[in-house]
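Handout, page 2. Input:
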Amino acid sequence: MGTKDAAALHTILCSLLLLSLSCGCLAAESEGAQTALLEVDTSWKAARKIPQTLFGLFFEEINHAGAGGLWAELVSNRGFEAGGPYTPSNIDPWSIIGDESSIYVKTERASCFSRNMVALRMEILCAKCPAGGVGIYNPGFWGMNIEEGKSYNLVMYIRSLESVELTASLTCSDGLQNIAAAVIVDTNVSDWRKIQMQLLAKVTCRTSRLELTTSKRGVIWIDQVSLIPSDTYK
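Output:
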């Protein structure tokens, strides 16, 4: 392409750009000059009678409107089946407390619930575990809102071929401040056993988490972990 052709092409492109900008400005001015008027008639004459058969409330299950919202359950993915009915399943948002030398966690189709067969298998490898033990924790739906003076009903199913010494505790999100704790000591858990207890909060923490820890070597299966405020409306 020669110099003259290049100059001509440059002139054409600049002209088109200026024309485009001018049209955009005119359109914006035209739109800005328009005025919209919305009239709402709130008189009884405009009202429609609501049928007796119409009741309820619509909501869409996004951003935890149901689970973590209307449903008072504080534990997210309580059955370790976020990844579906097969293993390995997704245990998110559960996380592990301890390193690979002290604990090994996986999912197995070993639950006592025939319709929800996935359970968590937690193998404690350390003979001398770190202070506070090793285990798992659940932050709930972006943090559990635990309030001072209130009690929380903890329910879960556990199984082990040996005796169990498992601590269930509520801590702030960093795991350092203890809000409530209870120890599960049981020698008869060779078959699945339902554990129920109450945790009484000593302080308030808006971003709490539930921890299940132990310092006893062995294998524990855990499933269907639930934490619900005692004052929940039913």
